[in-house]
């Protein structure tokens, strides 16, 4: 009898101990992630290099936070029902039933509508920001896609005597005969508004620079536009992400985000080189 009396309190306090341990583990996990790289908090996304990319990342993170909060409430209610409303004895009466309970039915109908409305609001707000075009961007780049390379034009920087009349970076498509290609270089300045005007001369392509957290299609006969505000220097490779033919995977370009001073020097160098080439 004594041993049974001793075991009963332990059985009753076990859920409380488990809850405290779970809370301690959760706090430990949060504290541990705070000491590591923020790659964990990006939830699989690369570090953004533009303001627009940061907005997209914040929306992604917020969606995950909302999902985890909803999951925590649902899981908590399930665990609470399992622990505190489990049937202890075969003769125990059935718990109070809430079928056809109008307030509860209204609750689980209205709450999802509110959640969807909140997600829709933030999505629409951020989408409008990402699609916004300023009246006077600092730099404009015309992006021309074709099978299977790119041309980048800078209409704000004139080159008298050249083929286009302004700074232009041309790519050379990969071919099985030569086995090589020349990747065009896209150079843009940080801390400046950069507008991209996208045009395709043949089929649909898609302009993608990974840390922009954004891509937009080049559609024949339908010019597209978007702007970014780079906040970091960066270099890497851009891609076409729309299957556009046999050598789609070779449709790449180099990207460099540089300081405004470096961009100015690069532009002057290209103007001199292309004017000389055009004159020759």
Structure at a glance:
Helices cover 42% and strands 23% of the residues. It has helices at 2-34, 51-84, 102-131, 260-279; strands at 139-146, 149-158, 166-170, 185-189, 194-200, 205-209, 214-218, 224-228, 234-240, 252-258.
Distance between the termini: 107 Å
| Low-pLDDT residue spans | 1-13, 28-37
Radius of gyration: 29 Å
- Content-based structural category: alpha+beta
Give the strand content: 15-25%
- What characteristic shape results from the CA principal axes? elongated
Mean pLDDT: 83
Query: What's the arrangement of strands in the largest beta sheet?
Result: 3-2-1-5-8
Would you count the extended β strands for me? 10
H/E topology pattern: HHHEEEEEEEEEEH
- Major sheet: 5 strands, mixed
Q: What share of residues is helical?
A: 40-55%
- DSSP summary: helix tally: 4
Structure, explained:
The protein has 280 residues and is an alpha+beta fold. Strand 1 and strand 2 form a beta hairpin. The N and C termini lie far apart (107 Å). It has helices at 2-34, 51-84, 102-131, 260-279, and strands at 139-146, 149-158, 166-170, 185-189, 194-200, 205-209, 214-218, 224-228, 234-240, 252-258. Helices cover 42% and strands 23% of the residues. The longest helix has 34 residues, at 51-84. It is elongated. Helix 2 packs antiparallel against helix 3 (102-131). The strands form two sheets. Strands 3-2-1-5-8 form a five-stranded mixed sheet. The protein has a five-stranded mixed sheet with strand order 4-10-9-6-7.
What keywords describe this structure?
280 residues; 5-stranded mixed beta sheet; alpha+beta
């Amino acid at each position: 009898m004594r041993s049974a009396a001793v075991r009963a309190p332990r059985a009753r306090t076990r859920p409380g101990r488990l809850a405290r341990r779970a809370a301690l583990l959760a706090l430990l996990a949060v504290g541990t992630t705070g000491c590591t790289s923020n790659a964990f908090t990006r939830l699989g996304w690369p570090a953004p290099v533009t303001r627009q990319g940061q907005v997209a990342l914040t929306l992604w993170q917020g969606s995950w936070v909302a999902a985890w909060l909803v999951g925590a409430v649902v899981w908590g209610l399930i665990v609470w029902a399992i622990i505190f409303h489990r049937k202890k004895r075969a003769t125990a009466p059935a718990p109070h039933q809430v079928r056809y309970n109008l307030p509860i039915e209204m609750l689980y109908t209205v709450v999802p509508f509110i959640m969807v409305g909140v997600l829709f609001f933030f999505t629409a707000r951020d989408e409008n920001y990402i699609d916004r075009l300023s009246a006077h961007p600092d730099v404009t780049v015309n992006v021309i896609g074709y099978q299977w390379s790119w041309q980048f034009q800078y209409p704000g920087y004139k080159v008298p005597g050249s083929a286009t009349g302004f700074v232009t970076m041309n790519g050379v498509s990969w071919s099985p005969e030569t086995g090589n290609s020349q990747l065009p270089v896209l150079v843009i300045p940080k801390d400046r508004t950069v507008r991209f005007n996208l045009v395709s001369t043949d089929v649909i392509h898609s302009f993608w620079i990974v840390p922009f957290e954004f891509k937009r299609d080049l559609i024949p006969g339908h010019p597209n536009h978007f702007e970014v505000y780079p906040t970091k220097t960066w270099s890497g490779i851009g891609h076409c992400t729309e299957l556009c033919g046999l050598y789609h995977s070779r449709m790449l370009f180099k990207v460099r985000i540089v300081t405004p001073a470096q961009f100015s020097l690069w532009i002057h160098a290209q103007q001199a080189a292309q004017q000389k080439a055009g004159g020759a």
